[in-house]
User: Fold this.
Amino acid sequence: MSTIKEVAEQAGVSQATVSRVMNGEVRVAEPTRLRVEAAVAALGYHPNAFARSLASNRSHGVGLIISHLGGPFMGRLMLTLEDVLRRHDKSLLVASGRSDPEREREAARFLLARRCDGLLVHADGMSDEELEALAAQTPLVVINRLVPALSDRCVHVDNVSGGYQATRHLIEQGHRRIACITGPLWKQDATQRLMGYRRAMAQAKLAVDTDAVFEGDSLEHSGRLAVERLATRGVDYTALVTGNDEMALGAIARLRELGRSVPEEVSMVGYDDEAYARYVSPGLTTVHAPLEEMAAAAAQRLLALAYDRPWQGELRFTPWLVERGTVAPPAS
Assistant:
């Protein structure tokens, strides 16, 4: 097994320079970096991770606190984060907080105890103040949430715009009686999407009946339950705006079971543009949230904060409407 001393001798540099190259430090001149990398490849050198961590006071690991481990949304998020970090020779360590404040705190303590160099946080339970305190302890980037005091390290989407676009599209198709299925309203993104719905309705001078808004839990079964509750409440609607694609599919399934066709009798707009949205029949009209772009931006921002890398990029992303087959003008 080759040693760092042998790499240094072959590259004609000091062992300290080899360490700086292996640690990804930007102040190493490019010709020197290339010589060291060539020597590493030729000798098959693999640094001892523990010794490397002690020497540099860095683990080269990044922690991710995530609200849950299931579903395509979180899978896409984690895949993109890991891809970007691995390209920079960093590892991703994941802990789930289940949107519970205490479990999120435990996840943060777990990751910091394992000497993660920084944290990526997709958390709903911890307060803004707690996230601010955590950011004072370690490099931190918040994903899919805006904490005003940490605005320079929050990667988020304009959910108000997304909710507005979804509702406005239905209004432009001629719908006037539009119901809304939200996610849990204690979450920032669900509240903002509802704000967009209300804004579009107000702009069109359309009243919003309190009974026409149903608070779901972002899962398929609450889309089904929403359809049942709207019927029980006697809400007369020709279109539904939903807080995510999963609830939209649940609502479509229940409407069909009740003999109501989509989009002939009820139009539907989802949110997120998950991969399956294009394959269901009819294809689901939905709001595309640029998740992969957001995840890549979050990883790059964390790399800049934790490893003193240069950074220039976007933190706030705008979603857009993807038209497919679940919206039609209301039946006359």
